[in-house]
Amino acid sequence: MVESTIVKQLERSTYHLLKRAAKHAANLHGDKVGKHGLTQRQFAVLIAVDENEGLSQTMLVTLTSIDRSTMADLVGRLIAQGYIRRKRDKTDGRRNVLKMTAAGKRALQTAGPGIASVDRKLTSLIPKEHRKSFRAALKILAQQAAS
Questions:
Q1: What is the chain's Cα-based Rg?
Q2: CB within 8 A of 28, min separation 6: which ones?
Q3: C-beta of residue 65 within 8 angstroms of C-beta of residue 142
Q4: What rounded mean pLDDT belongs to the chain?
Q5: Exposed / middle / buried, residue 84 (Cβ in 10 Å: 0-12, 13-18, 19+)
Q6: Is the distance from CB of 102 to CB of 84 less than 8 angstroms?
Q7: Using alpha carbons only, what angle is made at residue 113 by residues 54 and 100, rounded to the nearest 5 degrees?
């Protein structure tokens, strides 16, 4: 009887449901993309650097909503893996900018189909009539995280 009450409470908890959904998404990502060696956050960073050549690490934090300390670690690992490089900004010597390498572009190309597959799988789990509102709600939550 107590277990049933707890389960009902958890099923009404937005936070709990989001955590469970995120865990499921992470598991799918690990199964499809993990074998290529890119985490979802690494993929997000590589996409951001690829689409914004020469951006600063500070701007990368803003674009991805990954906290500064995690970003510093991620960038360090991506540099060590040869996927991005850091160099001094030509116009502002106090600032470092990030550039994509050929290896980084290959890593994106390799992981891209798996990422797309995970997105399709997750989307397919949502009834068609709810997909648009589901994405809209997720965007609202994500925008709050960025502010």
A1: 18
A2: 118, 121, 122
A3: yes
A4: 88
A5: buried
A6: no
A7: 15
CATH tag, 2-146: 1.10.10.10
CA-to-CA distance for 108 and 61, rounded, in angstroms? 19
Residue 44 has a pLDDT of 92
Residues of the chain with pLDDT below 50 are: none
According to DSSP, the residues that pair with 85 across neighbouring strands are 99
Please check whether residue 36 is in contact with residue 110, taking contact to mean a CB–CB distance below 8 angstroms. yes
Residue 142 has a CB neighbour count (10 Å cut-off) of 10
Q: Which amino acid is at 91?
A: T
Backbone angles phi, psi at 99, to 5 degrees: -130, 145
pLDDT at 94: 77
Q: Where are the domains of the chain?
A: 2-146
Assign 87 to helix, strand or coil: strand
pTM score: 0.81
Residue 82 Ramachandran class (φ > 0 left, ψ -120 to 50 alpha, else beta): left
